[in-house]
Amino acid sequence: MHYKITKVLFATIYLWNIAAHGQGALPPISFRDFSDYDGEGSAVYLINRAETKIYHSQGRGWVARTSYQFRLRVLNEDGLDYANLEVDLYQGDADVERIDDIKATTYNINREKGLIDQVTLGKEAIFTKKTSDRWKEVSFTLPQVSVNSVIDVNYVKVTPFIFNLDDWYFQHDIPVVKSRYDMVIPAFHQYVFGLNGYLEVDTLAAEWNKAKLQYGNYTYQNLEAFWEMSDVPAFQEESFMTTREDYISKLEFQLKAVITPNREDTYLKSWEEVTEDLKEDFRFKSFYRRKDKFGDLPQVTGGDLDKAEALYKQFKSRFKWNKKFGVFPDVTINRFTKDREGNTSALGLAMYNLMKQEGLDVQTCALQSLLQWSHQLRLSFPHETDLYGREARSRRRDLST
To answer: Against a cut of 0.85, is the pTM above it?
Structure first.
């Protein structure tokens, strides 16, 4: 199976006219939990869900409280490892993350009595250790887990680090029957979210809670949103994947701004603002505003597509990639023209400039993979069609090869 990655869409969470419902306790265990799923895998998440609430805590400021709940069935011996849980907690200079209310239960069928036996996790089986100067780990193992056991796990993570909330993974190495993530956000906070991977959510909804809350002298409401996905397949890595995080289906969050009636703190710029900042950077301007054609490249003729292909081949035959990546050029424009060598940014911006001077409709985009920046060109060429008149087709050309 081959996976495709969707364009990561970042959008501020606004109001949808669909009712959002908060989460309660996991449903009571039943015999159906031991038999309903007949698919493949070493284990299966029957239910996997979490709810994050951002609220103001006296003495700590704004914090995020995330309640995690899941029900998992072990299908074979390889799935026994899912009885071992580890939660990492970050330790900042002025504040720390913590974990509260750990509750875990193992369920097994007692065939002699026709009942479901249960064993709960004891506090003595929960361990905490320091793994580095900044991190500690809370770990526990559920008791009496065997093949066909069902386990329930509940715990709460509280963090003051609300700029980047933990990603929510719809997809795991095992199948997920039902996955859901809820979020409760004060009206002061604006978050952007990104849906990564090739799977689409089944339900995305949000509404304002009518309850009035108090923050200092201000009255506000909470926005309640949720995302739901059903029958999620196990994630399978393919040979072409550079990193699983680029392909696995998950939600990502970043705090854009905190706005109160007398103050506005912005933490995340829009793509339009980032683009304008880059265009005004002196390292960019010297390349994409240059008026000559970077040396003695011959004149090209023909249609747009022919001209673009000829320019690309000529440019690549004369200028070399120095095997370096970067969002900014690593050489001056004069040094680039003289040595005919530069990083991905220098090559991409120079090629962009050259094609713009030939009147071609061209855009440059920066792609990040494994912390390396690669500049590519997207060329649009209009052509005639019978149905829609003029439309555009595009070709990409990567200069870092």
So the answer is: no
